[in-house]
Amino acid sequence: AEIRRKDPFKALLRSALRPFHSGKVDPENVSKAARILGLGSAGVQLKQLRMLAETKLLGDLFRSRVAELQVSSSDFKALRESITLVALPYLLAETDAILTNLFRAVRYTAPIRATAERYYRHQDLAVDEADPQGGNLAMFLRSLTWNETNEFNDWCRLHFGFSISAKGDGPHISLMLHMDGGSVTYNIADVGFGFSQMLPVIVQIWSLNRPPRRAVVQAESAGFVYTDPIERFQIGDIVAIEQPELHLHPRLQARIADMLVAAVSRAKSSKRSLTMLIETHSETIVNRVGSLILERKINPEEVQILVFERNHQETETQLRVARYSEQGFLENWPAGFFLSEEM
């Protein structure tokens, strides 16, 4: 998809250039000069004007006038304002495209996730990613290629010791679970409730490996130039998961933490940007991350803890920033956070 914007300020920029050249200059040359000028610091823009003067596109008068210009000159300030106005539609379009891609990049898993069913109705729909509640997991897993299915199960076995298969039976699909070392395959509806709650989290993290299938929105620059060397805003993967620990044994909660840290390491090794927002009340997950820092599986600088505190005498919620030390100990952590009774 393309975002197109008109530029109603080009005439204003041509007017701002008028004091710098004689009226005999070809209007087409003035338009070309206006297209060349771009955003940048005052010093960079002044340098750009002087480079433009060397082209003699706007004549000798322009060259002599620009040679006299200073950053503090009123004519130069007016010209800079006009350049900014010309850039405004493109800046807004670029911002719009960035925000659109940012929101599209977020993968969200809700705290209340779909319960396991014995049979899922087959639907001929394209399934690119799991929905927030995991209600389409059967269709998602069924849509994986043979290689993707093997990669997914390798990931499950590595971190949790089981594999999942989506078996078709006429118009229905069943999710079957096989524990490593066992000889029996179970319908996911017949095992602990935690499996159905954990599976959407596993799928969401593993699917970061898959190439993005969503279209990328790009703003049309229409030839507008940024005179300062800037790096185009790059949007990586953003994952938001609420309470991944729900209905899980503490040992499995710790394995969830292991998987999250492994995903960060995998993203680093492939030079991808990955941001994970994990909302949790799990003492096991918090402590396990500290242990993984001590084991050098992740750097303390890569983990930030935000604690939301509410004083019963106040209406506002305070935000406390906690962190891990190099040894994995919590710093600036609120006393008694995990206690069941107030001290």
- How many domains comprise the coordinates? 3
Shape estimate:
elongated
Class of secondary structure makeup: alpha/beta
| Percent of sequence in beta strands | 15-25%
**How many beta strands in the DSSP annotation?**
12
Overall pLDDT, averaged? 83
Distance between the termini: 58 Å
C-alpha-based Rg, rounded: 29 Å
State the helicity in percent bands: 40-55%
- The residue ranges in which pLDDT falls below 50 over 5 or more consecutive positions are 1-7, 221-232
Element-level helix/strand string: EHHHHHEEHHEEEHEEHEHEEE
Separate helix tally: 10
Largest sheet report: 4 strands, antiparallel
Throw out a few tags for this protein:
single chain, 343 residues, alpha/beta, 3 domains, four-stranded antiparallel beta sheet, three-stranded parallel beta sheet, disordered N terminus
Structure description:
It is a single chain. The chain is an alpha/beta fold and 343 residues long. The chain has 3 domains: 2-106, no CATH class; 108-209, no CATH class; 243-331. It has helices at 10-17, 27-36, 42-54, 59-68, 74-105, 137-143, 146-160, 193-206, 250-269, 283-294; strands at 2-3, 106-109, 120-121, 162-169, 172-179, 185-187, 218-219, 237-242, 274-279, 305-310, 317-324, 330-331. Strands 3, 4, 5 and 6 form a 4-stranded antiparallel beta sheet that branches. Strands 2-8-9 form a 3-stranded parallel beta sheet. Helix 1 packs antiparallel against helix 5 (74-105) and helix 3 (42-54) packs antiparallel against helix 4. The longest helix has 32 residues, at 74-105. The radius of gyration is 29 Å and the shape is elongated. The protein starts with a strand and ends in a 12-residue tail after the last strand. Mean pLDDT is 83; it is low at 1-7 and 221-232.
